[in-house]
């Protein structure tokens, strides 16, 4: 029971107050400190009459707050450290988690208390003094092996940033790596991307602290010309272990500098800084919500997840931690109300109970070593008892012996027979495995006997049937194509006959035309090419695909389909548009070619004129050197004439070039139009072709038997015994 009591410490959060010395122009507020009261000191703040709105009867005039200890304006940094941080640091060295956090409005001395001032060595704050104290204690204690790491987290506008990342040279806060919160199944908080930097001595730790401080986000508000607008958490991680022991102690000390707690109206800021102030107030509001929830009895849900800071300080507030808070107060007249608000917050924090547990865990590597030693000792003991040296695996002779024993046991019909292999677990396990193998082997052999020699289906027969099905489908497809073409030829024939009747042509002429049409039909139905069974198999992979779709058939149409498309294209409404556009395009190409030649001529002419001007310059310069005269200084009329010609040629060039560009745009437009019409025509053909194919499948095609024509497919195929590609 004593050990359990020593491993857990239950206590409320210790709350201290520190009053900031007044500035030169600040008016002192009325307050009194009573240190005599036991066990707590009390602070009484009196609100002056001018702040109580004309002193209404129900308005309080004085407020009294109790603290563990109150540090007045004259208190030195070392006294503050000895009272507040030193006890927490001692607990951390013993294996408990600890937290020290400062809370108060901007300019009340939070950063001075936590980090310290830069002017004098004696102004060092809690963080550098704690580092110094911890490393001093670690050097004195030689009974344990200690490792120390530090991390520095900044929370600005609800985003976490790692201030100690060695890989980043931060000119802006956004350059630093962003820290995100992750929660495991046991609801433990883990900070992703927050680096842990090892510090073997005080100097290394202070260098890391300095690096973090230089990366901190500093901005200006009227309250303080260099006030921190972010929450900062400096954490010291200590792990200790006695030599030879498997037990390891891990503890951490959070030193927290919160952002200013003043109201947004009082900061006198707008825009970017107003956003900061809102985030800070929201973050502190969530902190207050957590503290109120913890102070209430029988409260099941604590809203830790509302903000990043409350998530990080989860253990520090009502968890496994020894926590101390210092409320920093600026008790001048202007800031009385904010100071009272800070004191109220501190009183709520003082109600929270924490349960600090000694953080001990077993080092797995040492545990493995110990277990291996224990196994070896047990093996040695077993060898002494049995008188036999025990190896990890059974020998081949032992395995054969066990197999014979199992088989004898299974063959024995005596129900009282036993299988005795001795008190060796390895032998017992092997016997069970061997019995299982024998049982499985017998089951499979029984199944084979029951099933007998069932004749297997011939795989070749199945393959042949599949080939036959594919051939039938391909024949059906070709049949449809031929029937569509025959129907088209009939329509062509009818058109030709109507035209002949209208022209009152002679009967002989019409007969000739009819004969030629029939010959054409006969030619089209004759097998222009034959293909073998192998070719059919090659084609069968494309069954169910429409042959005219170029994207599906690698850009190729079947011959029948091509002929049908040519006739369809000729009769299509848009064919005239295509021809007109082609003619226009040809005309524009000719114009462009002509203009291009003219432009080249003009360009050559301009270059020639420029050359003449240059030559003229050289001649005049030579004359000026050999025989200087005033005439040479005057404007050269020949050069002026040449320049005028160049200007005219340039104007001509510009006119032609603008026309050239216009023609180029027109040509591109015409090409696009032609392409669009072609695509539309192909799409229309595809729709028509698929409809024709469907109609043929629904209606059984009639056999065309005319005295002047041959019998149409499929009878034609029977007679010729060939597959028509058309």
From TrEMBL:
Record's GO cellular component terms: microtubule
Underlying gene: Kif6
SMART domains in the cross-refs: KISc
Alphabetized UniProt keyword annotations: ATP-binding, Cytoplasm, Cytoskeleton, Microtubule, Motor protein, Nucleotide-binding
GO MF annotations in UniProt: ATP binding; microtubule binding; microtubule motor activity
Residue ranges of domain Kinesin motor in the record: 12-352
PANTHER family to which the protein is assigned, alphabetical: CENTROMERE PROTEIN E, KINESIN MOTOR DOMAIN-CONTAINING PROTEIN
Binding site for ATP: 104-111
Acidic residues compositional bias, start-end: 454-466
Name of the protein: Kinesin-like protein
SUPFAM superfamilies: P-loop containing nucleoside triphosphate hydrolases (SSF52540)
GO terms (BP aspect): microtubule-based movement
Compartments reported by the entry: Cytoplasm, Cytoskeleton
Family: Belongs to the TRAFAC class myosin-kinesin ATPase superfamily. Kinesin family.
UniProt keyword RNA-binding present: no
Region (Disordered): 444-466
Pfam families per UniProt: KIF9, Kinesin
Originating species: Rhegmatorhina hoffmannsi
């Amino acid at each position: 029971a004593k050990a359990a009591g020593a491993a857990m410490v239950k206590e409320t959060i210790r709350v201290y107050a520190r009053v900031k010395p007044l500035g030169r122009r600040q008016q002192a507020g009325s307050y009194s400190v009573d240190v005599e009261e036991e066990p707590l000191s009390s602070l009484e703040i009196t609100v002056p009459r001018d702040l109580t709105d004309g002193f209404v009867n129900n308005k309080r005039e004085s407020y009294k707050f109790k603290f563990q200890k109150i540090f007045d304006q004259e208190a030195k940094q070392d006294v503050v450290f000895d009272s507040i941080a030193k006890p927490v640091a001692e607990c951390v060295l013993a294996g408990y988690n600890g937290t020290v956090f400062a809370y108060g409005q901007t300019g009340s001395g939070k950063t001075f208390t936590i980090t310290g001032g830069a002017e004098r060595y004696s102004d060092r704050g809690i963080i550098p003094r704690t580092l110094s104290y911890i490393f001093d204690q670690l050097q004195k204690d030689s009974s344990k092996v200690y490792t120390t790491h530090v991390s520095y987290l900044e929370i600005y506008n609800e985003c976490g940033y790692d201030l100690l990342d060695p890989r980043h040279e931060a000119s802006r806060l956004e350059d630093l790596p962003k820290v995100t919160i992750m929660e495991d199944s046991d609801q433990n908080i883990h900070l992703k991307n927050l680096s842990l930097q090892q510090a073997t001595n005080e100097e290394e730790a202070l260098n890391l602290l300095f690096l973090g401080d230089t990366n901190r986000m500093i901005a200006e508000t009227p309250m303080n010309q260099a006030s921190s607008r972010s929450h900062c958490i400096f954490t010291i991680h200590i792990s200790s272990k006695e030599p030879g022991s498997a037990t390891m102690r891990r503890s951490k000390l959070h030193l927290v500098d919160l952002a200013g707690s003043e109201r947004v109206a009082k900061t006198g800021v707008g825009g970017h800084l107003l956003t900061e102030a809102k985030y800070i107030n929201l973050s502190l509001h969530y902190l207050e919500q957590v503290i109120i929830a913890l102070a209430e009895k029988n409260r099941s849900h604590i809203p830790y997840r509302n903000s990043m800071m409350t998530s990080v300080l989860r253990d520090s507030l009502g968890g496994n931690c020894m926590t101390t808070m210092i409320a920093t107060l600026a008790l001048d007249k202007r800031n009385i109300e904010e100071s009272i608000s800070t004191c109220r917050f501190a009183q709520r924090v003082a109600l929270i109970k924490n349960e600090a547990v000694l953080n001990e865990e077993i080092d797995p590597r040492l545990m493995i070593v110990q277990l291996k030693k224990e196994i070896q000792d047990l093996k040695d003991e077993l060898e002494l008892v049995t008188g036999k040296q025990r190896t990890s695996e059974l020998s081949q002779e032992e395995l054969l012996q066990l197999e014979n024993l199992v088989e004898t046991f299974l063959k024995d019909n005596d129900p009282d027979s036993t299988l005795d292999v001795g008190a060796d677990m390895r032998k017992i396990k092997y016997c069970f495995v061997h019995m299982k193998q024998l049982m499985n082997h017998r089951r499979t052999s029984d199944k084979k006997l029951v099933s007998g020699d069932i004749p297997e289906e011939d795989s070749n027969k199945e393959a042949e049937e599949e080939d036959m099905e594919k051939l039938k489908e391909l024949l059906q497809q070709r049949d449809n194509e031929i029937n569509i073409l025959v129907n088209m030829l009939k329509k062509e024939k009818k058109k030709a006959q109507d035209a002949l009747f209208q022209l009152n042509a002679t009967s002989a002429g019409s007969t000739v035309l009819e004969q030629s049409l029939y010959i054409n039909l006969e030619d089209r139905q004759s097998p222009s090419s034959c293909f073998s069974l192998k070719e059919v198999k090659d084609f069968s992979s494309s069954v169910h695909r429409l042959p005219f779709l170029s994207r599906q058939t690698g850009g190729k149409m079947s011959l029948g389909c091509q002929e049908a498309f040519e006739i369809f294209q000729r009769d299509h409404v848009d064919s005239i548009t295509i021809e007109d556009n082609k003619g226009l395009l040809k005309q524009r190409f000719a114009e462009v070619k002509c203009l291009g030649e003219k432009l080249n001529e003009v360009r050559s002419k301009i270059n020639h004129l420029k050359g003449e001007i240059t030559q003229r310059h050289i001649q005049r310069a030579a004359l000026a050197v050999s025989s200087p005269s005033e005439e040479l200084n005057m404007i050269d009329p020949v050069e002026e004439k040449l320049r005028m010609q160049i200007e005219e040629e340039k104007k001509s060039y510009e006119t032609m070039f603008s026309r050239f560009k216009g023609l180029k745009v027109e040509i591109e437009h015409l090409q696009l139009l032609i392409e669009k019409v072609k695509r539309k025509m192909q799409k229309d053909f595809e729709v028509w072709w698929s409809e024709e194919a469907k109609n043929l499948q629904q209606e059984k095609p009639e056999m065309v038997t005319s005295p002047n024509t041959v019998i149409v497919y499929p009878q034609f195929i029977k007679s010729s015994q060939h597959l028509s590609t058309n």
